[in-house]
Specification:
Layout (H helix, E strand, L loop, with lengths): L2 E4 L2 E7 L1 H18 L6 E6 L3 H10 L7 E11 L2 E10 L9 E9 L3 H12 L4 E9 L13 E5 L5 E2 L15 E4 L2
Parallel strand pairs: 3-4, 3-6, 6-7, 7-8
Antiparallel strand pairs: 1-2, 2-10, 4-5, 9-10
Length: 181
């Protein structure tokens, strides 16, 4: 089992690159089946979801016509949530009458997804679903933020790698690592 030490913490490999690829493929297969006759717009939430989104979109059936766009949002000031979504890089794509799939790296409380879904619906999205690599169901506070497509469920642990960061670093790891207590 691979391990990494970062900023005084010890992390051990939790999901291998092979396990991640399998999770991504099962999410892509479900999306491909659900959107066979549609042209979904993937709204990728930066920075964390870019790795998952790239693999997910490439894993879709080749007859799925789709577009991608990127947003960057924050609901935090320092280490505390403000409760409000701030658009750092706003949505650049028209979503009116589109079937939208929000792509996230991890969903925990669901605050970002809850507010982002409301924002997209207010701008005329036909439907809004959520695909995430990781989901912390025990932390979910907003019922409407429960993801439709989940790569893997996780409990309370802090994780890094595969787009998930520790103070901006470690996104480049090809596996997902959990902090060892």
């Amino acid at each position: 089992m691979r391990s990494i030490d970062e900023q005084g913490y010890h992390f051990e490999e939790w999901l291998t690159p092979k396990q991640i690829a399998e999770d991504v493929q099962q999410v892509a297969d479900r999306i491909s089946a659900d959107y066979r006759d549609k042209e979904p717009l993937f709204v990728v939430v930066l920075n964390g979801a870019f790795v998952f989104a790239a693999d997910l979109i490439r894993a879709l059936d080749k007859d799925i016509r789709c577009e991608q766009t990127f947003i960057r949002v924050s609901s935090y000031f320092g280490m505390a949530t403000t409760g409000q979504l701030e658009f750092i890089v706003p949505l650049q794509q028209v979503v009116d009458q589109r079937d939208v799939i929000i792509v996230e790296d991890i969903v925990d409380t669901g605050l970002t997804i809850h507010q982002l879904k409301a924002h997209l619906r207010a701008h005329g999205a036909n439907s809004v679903r959520v695909a995430t690599m990781l989901f912390k169901p025990a932390k979910l506070e907003y019922d409407d933020a429960k993801p439709d497509y989940v790569g893997h469920e996780i409990s309370e642990e802090f994780v890094i790698g595969y787009g998930l960061d520790f103070d901006g670093f470690m996104r480049n790891l090809d596996a997902i690592y959990k902090v060892k207590k």
